[in-house]
Amino acid sequence: MKTFLTPALVAVTLLFTGCASTTEGSTVGASRSQLLLVSSAELDQMAAQSYAKLKAEASAKGTLNTNAAMLARVRAVAARIEPQTAVFRADAPRWQWEVNLITSDQLNAFCMPGGKIMFYTGLVSRLNLSDDEIAVVMGHEIAHALREHSREQVSQAAAAQTAIGIGTQLLGLGGGTSQITEAAYEALVATRFSRSHESEADRIGLELTARAGYNPQAGVSLWQKMASAGSTGGGADFLSSHPTDSSRVQQIQALLPTVMPLYQATRR
Asked: CA torsion, points 69, 82, 21, 118, in degrees to nearest 10?
């Protein structure tokens, strides 16, 4: 007798077959199963295209890599951190890494999937960041790429859309109810996952910072500066959907006994 999978069973099958982990074990204990339903290669290609477009637009505006000294600083920090990514992923040091700088007052930085890094000059100049503090930011952003948080978020959204569609069909609900459910998911679940990712990136990033020979204690001063910029209306885009500054500093302080020996080992 032939058997057929219902939409619900198909969704459940996808959820279980899509669970994996993008990184190996770490000193800071950032390991868990991840929902990964979309292709890593596809997302990397999209990221590369988006990054190229961003560079082209900045170049046309005359804002790409105009501060040679700052660009050299940021690239030097990245060059020391990139080899350390092998601790978490054997393939990461072979990524097509790229680091660029956009002249802007924004307090922002990011690392797209596949190692495409962008810093904004405002983050470094307005906060007067030291190399150690730049390394904390860099490590944090690279951690997002190592853990493929973008891929995970897209997968979560896809799974949610599937579940919402199945629920709407089973309950006989109209499109309006479906839209409300989707909006609720975005407002509640997505925000929670985002904060979870940020905390995870803080932990992995701090270990990368230490292994690269930068003082992880700079994480405390960095987030204190970020908090000050945010409280004074400084437009700290980097803090969007992030954990509170106080909880972030507490987590960093709790991790220091674990990561400081890694940093001290590089000083010998």
From this structure: 20
- pLDDT bracket for residue 213 (50, 70, 90): very high
3-state secondary structure of 34: strand
Cα distances (Å, whole numbers) of residue 254 to 201, 217, 226, 249, 250: 15, 11, 19, 9, 6
Which amino acid, residue 210? A
Please provide residue 103's backbone torsions phi and psi, each rounded to the nearest 5 degrees.
-75, 110
In the chain, where the domains are located: 35-267
Residue 226, pLDDT > 50, answer yes
H/E element, 2 = none
**Is 231's pLDDT higher than 50?**
no
Tens-place pLDDT, residues 46-102: 788 889 999 999 999 999 999 999 999 999 999 999 999 999 999 999 999 999 999
Distances from the Cα of 64 to the Cαs of 40, 219, 264, in angstroms?
A: 28, 27, 36
CA nearest to 205, candidates 133, 265, 257: 133
DSSP H helices, 18-130, are 40-61, 68-81, 121-126
Compute the distance between CA of residue 120 and CA of residue 58 in angstroms, rounded to an integer.
Answer: 11
Rounded distance between C-alpha atoms, residue 199 and residue 217, angstroms: 16
Max Cα distance, the chain (Å): 72
pLDDT tens per residue across span 25-44: 555 555 555 555 566 777 78
C-beta neighbour count of 145 within 10 angstroms: 27
Q: Would you say 142 and 87 are in contact if contact means Cβ atoms under 8 Å apart?
A: no
